What we know:
By secondary structure, the protein is an alpha+beta fold. The protein is 31% helix and 26% strand. It has helices at residues 15-25, 29-36, 44-52, 99-105, 128-143, 157-165, and strands at residues 6-9, 64-69, 72-81, 112-119, 147-153, 169-175, 187-194. A seven-stranded mixed sheet has the order 1-2-3-4-5-7-6, sandwiched between helices. Helix 1 (15-25) crosses helix 3 and helix 2 (29-36) crosses helix 3.
Amino acid sequence: MSDRFRLRPARKDDARVLALLIDIAGEGFGNYLWAQSAGPGESALDVGMKRAQREEGGFSYRNATLAERDGEVAGLLLGYRLDDPYDTGDLNALPELVRPLVELESSAPGSWYINALAAFPQFRNRGLGTFLLREADRLTKRSGAEMVSLIVAEENDDAMRLYLRKGYREAARRPLVPFPGLGHGGDWVLMTKRA
Length: 195
């Protein structure tokens, strides 16, 4: 039986929970990248929180929707419409582990892109992923995009099963560049679904 969740737009003061959920969605990817740019006395979480508080950029509180249950944040949907045409810029200027993700994003120009979908462990297996994907469908239609897209690690079995069950299909893949703390290899997989 599915719990009752409520959606709300994220606020700037949600930065800590946004950073935590982004790191969950990326299986530690965010934390690893943020640690690379942390200054003296600054933690990876501090960097992630600053990024979440930005007014612009993909990872901004302005692109985030939070799901709550009984006033407690349960999960996150972070998404936005990708540019069309999509300019990758100089891929060689990006960290090696980010390049395949940018290449995959560029394969779905103009789509409404789910940058992150995540739930805190205590709220999993309660229908929250399906609930958030329904909201993604609604936002895709509202944006006028003809397609919704996302990127998932092929070896993230639970997420892959959810996306396949909800009608997403593989559109492209690139090798995943491993980073410390990631418990698997494989590919990053771009998945898409018609709006």
